[in-house]
From TrEMBL:
This is Uncharacterized protein. It comes from the Bacteria.
């Protein structure tokens, strides 16, 4: 018989699920919390189950009426998008082996699932890029060194989302070579600002008015030898 008088209310599960969705709790941390609510062992077939479904299973064990309340609260919430704090927490968990890269991917891309009805918007373009573009497009190529560099970028004391996004794009060697090619073409006078915009908009979602390194680029016109130093700075390399 379900415990209709349980001291745990549906808001507990809403708060817990929001913490996971925002990233301040990992999958494993959420599971440990759930085990504190009711005796529960994660079965082998549930290892790859989306974590919200596991939470709903436990909530239903506590009170079968909780499901609709939780769904309604999450659907109307505006604070469920991954946050910078959450990305940092999840990346640290990957680098310490507490969660797997696959679990990071599952967390970061939850909003891409067709059955997720909650509407929440990113307030950090670097976090947005990491979750909606970088991981979905490059997950198979990313190594632990890339996650370490991504963590360094998100922990940057300057906290400049535009520059952080640029650095995330430049994680791969391929993108660094493109950076040198297109920006080198521009500073040598072979392309106009409007032509440079084609590259900037495609890769960074910025034009030459919003690209954060445009003033530095303009200062090195016809001096391509200075471009590697700009790349080093933009990529936030060691």
């Amino acid at each position: 018989m379900k415990n209709e008088m349980s001291p745990v209310t549906y808001t507990y599960f809403v708060t817990l699920l929001k913490a996971y969705l925002r990233g301040t709790k990992t999958r494993q941390e959420l599971i440990e919390e759930l085990r504190g609510v009711t005796p529960w062992e994660e079965k082998e077939e549930n290892i790859h189950t989306e974590v919200s479904r596991l939470l709903f299973q436990v909530a239903n064990e506590v009170n079968e009426n909780f499901y609709q309340d939780i769904v309604s609260a999450i659907t109307h919430a505006t604070d469920t998008a991954p946050t910078r704090e959450g990305v940092i927490h999840q990346l640290e968990a990957v680098l310490t082996g507490f969660i797997t890269p696959e679990q990071l991917y599952q967390w970061a891309t939850w909003h891409n699932e067709p059955d997720m009805d909650a509407v929440s918007f990113f307030n950090d373009i670097a976090v947005d890029y990491f979750c909606t573009q970088l991981l979905p497009a490059s997950f198979e190529e990313l190594a632990l060194t890339d996650y370490k560099q991504a963590l360094k970028i998100f922990q940057s004391p300057h906290h400049d989302s535009l520059k952080d996004k640029v650095a995330l794009v430049l994680l791969s060697q391929k993108e660094r070579q493109r950076f040198l090619f297109y920006l080198g073409d521009y500073i040598q006078g072979h392309s106009s600002p409007e032509q440079l915009d084609v590259y900037l908009l495609h890769k960074f979602g910025m034009d030459h008015h919003s690209f954060p390194y445009m003033s530095a680029l303009s200062a090195m016109m016809h001096e391509p030898a200075k471009l590697p130093a700009l790349l080093h700075m933009a990529a936030m390399s060691e």
